[in-house]
Design brief:
Layout lengths: L6 H27 L3 E8 L11 E4 L2 E11 L7 E8 L8 E7 L6 E7 L7 H4 L8 E4 L3 H19 L2 H23 L1 H4 L1
Parallel strand pairs: 1-7, 2-6, 5-7
Antiparallel strand pairs: 1-4, 2-3, 3-4, 5-6
């Protein structure tokens, strides 16, 4: 025997549930986008290789925002400006510092915010309005420190292995060879 199903009721129920799910998703998206955000500017004096718009911003290891925009500083192309979008409740203080960091050896780079003593005022409260956004000061990253040390080491090795020093070492080795030959020839007299 064939079951009698009311296809109109089943279709209406399906459409009603689909519309309700769609409205819930829109409400959830609107709620998450209404969070209050604060924008800050960070100016790096080092390359930001691998950092891109949308990269994470962490405060002591906790995700608090994203990189909104990257650009070269108009007055000095050696500097990189990063506009950050950070949760307004994040305690960005006047002594908070930013630096490049990486998650693991092969992870993607992100901006790490550190510092911020409890007694320091919030950065957005002491912002004087000189720039369009409050500026978070930077400190060199560990990667930059390693690169600087490697550059200094290579420069010193270059000085050490200069033509003049190589000639001096060669002359000293020749003098030592002559001295040992002389001592070797007078071996019987030494006894």
């Amino acid at each position: 025997m064939e079951t009698k199903a009311n296809y109109v009721l089943i279709g209406a129920f399906t459409i009603l549930v689909s519309v309700a799910l769609l409205l819930f998703a829109l409400w959830g998206a609107n709620w998450s986008s209404e969070r209050s955000w604060q924008e800050y500017l960070v100016v790096f004096n080092e390359p930001v290789t691998g950092l891109s718009e949308g990269s994470a911003v962490q405060y002591n290891g906790i995700a608090v925002g994203t990189v909104e925009r990257l650009s070269l500083a108009p007055d000095d192309p050696r500097r990189v400006r990063a506009l950050l979008r950070i949760q307004a409740r994040a305690p960005v203080k006047s002594d908070t510092r930013a630096k490049m960091s990486m998650s693991g050896l092969t992870g993607s780079p992100f901006i790490q915010l550190t510092g911020g003593s409890p007694e320091a005022p919030r950065l957005d409260e002491v912002y004087s309005g000189r720039a369009p956004w409050p500026v978070i000061e930077t400190e060199p990253s560990a990667l930059q420190n390693i690169a600087d040390t490697a550059n200094r080491l290579v420069a010193r090795m270059d000085q050490l292995l200069s033509e003049e020093n190589i000639d001096r070492v060669s002359a000293s080795l020749e003098n030592i060879r002559l001295l040992t030959e002389s001592v070797s020839e007078q071996r019987d007299d030494v006894r």
